[in-house]
Amino acid sequence: MDAAEERFRRCYESAYDDVLRFVQRRTDPSHAEDVVADAFTVAWRRVEELPRALSAQRAWVFTIARNLLLNVERGERRRRALAVRVATDRRSHVIGHAETVIDTVDLARAFAQLRPMEQEALALAEWDGLSGPEAARVLGISATAFRLRLSRARRALRLAYDGGRSGLVLETVRERGASS
Amino acid sequence: MKADEEAVARAVALLDPAPRSATVSTVRGDRARADLRAILGGDREVAEPAATRARRRALRLAIPIAASVLGVGMLARALFGFGLGEPQLGDPVELTGEVAAGAVGACRDAQVDAVGVHGHDVPGVEAMWAAPVLLVEQRGDLRLVVMEPHEQGEEYLAYCLLERGGIVVRGVGGFAEDVWLPHRAASTDDGPPHTATERLIWGQAPPGTVAVTVDSPEGVTATPVWYPEAGIYTMVWPEGTMVRGEVEFTLEDGSTETVDL
């Protein structure tokens, strides 16, 4: 096994789960493994560009996967961002306390009111756990631009939710976070 | 992280359709192992979409023929559309048909000397998703700047504004209502400027500027973004606040200059 293959194999084994989740959040889960395989196929072809750090490798493969998904989307209709899916049926799984049940349906409705690029910024930061510079690299924008986009997305989510339920979810979540 | 950001983070986490705890397929799974073997074993086409395979095979046959007919330069441009070559900063591109006519017409109508066109509206450059891309074609007195506005955020506008009076045109259809004029306060978000709720402020910095800061009114946070190559700064002014304050330029010799907003 040569050095390039060894590096690629380590990247594959360490990043596969995260890349799979990244794709599952953005496309039909039944196609996700195919997209991940495509992404790693491209990554292997360009293995000489594989970053050294594991976190950077993950962001790099995310970028490839996102571009693959965007290419499919563009065949249907030009998009400005990649749509992300949301879960709406896991409230009991996540919360687990009847007194603090959070209405994820309302939250999902507020999330759906955001622009796709705002949804994507929140997803990269909060679901995929990317740092600002990593998320910026995935989107092909500057870290500053991403920071602005994320800041606007957070504010837009609050506004969208507050318009529907006086900020109950976010306030509740904040209070729970402060008390834990 | 601020408490407000934490609250949003926790709320957004509730919507994650693929949380870590719910992942079933892992790298230890049969499918993942098989894919890795296929990729490393040279049997990569196993994991390659059929359309990609067909395209590669077709190009393998077509390239020698096309090169002899078209010449290498034209062939290279033609290949952009097939994803084999990704245009790089400054690469030339030929605008044709409706896009070129619209861009040139918009330039003349607005009496400006530069125009930006959304990259995906340019026939043959569908593969422009790769990285910062800025393609330029000189057409007589006009300079056509082809870019990826939705990906580049503030940068694309700054680059466009580098050209005096430059404008950005998005979309082939709905051309007229989708023109961004630089002398208006424009948002870099989706939508034409008249619907923007935030204002994108921009301006040129004096020669020798190395940093830009803003002294904004209390309670207003507007962070300037400085583009040294373009000599331009931008900043997003919050919704519902008056645009006032001072922009301070730090020059190479350590001195400062200020301008009122």
Description of the structure:
The complex is a heterodimer of chains A (180) and B (261). Chain A is mostly helical and 180 residues long. Chain A has 9 helices and no strands. In chain A, helix 5 (104-112) crosses helix 8 (143-165) and helix 7 (132-139) packs across helix 8. By secondary structure, chain B is α+β, with helices and mostly antiparallel strands. Chain B contains 7 helices and 11 strands. Chain B has helices spanning 3-13, 30-40, 50-70, 72-80, 97-110, 149-152, 154-162, and strands spanning 114-118, 134-139, 142-147, 167-169, 179-180, 199-204, 209-215, 225-227, 232-237, 246-251, 256-260. In chain B, strand 8 (225-227) and strand 9 (232-237) form a beta hairpin. In chain B, helix 3 (50-70) packs antiparallel against helix 4 (72-80). Chain B is elongated. The model of chain B is unreliable at 44-104, 106-139 and 141-198 (pLDDT under 50). The chains are: A mainly alpha (180), B alpha+beta (261). At the A-B interface, helix 1, helix 2, helix 3, helix 5 and helix 6 of A face helix 1, helix 2 and helix 6 of B.
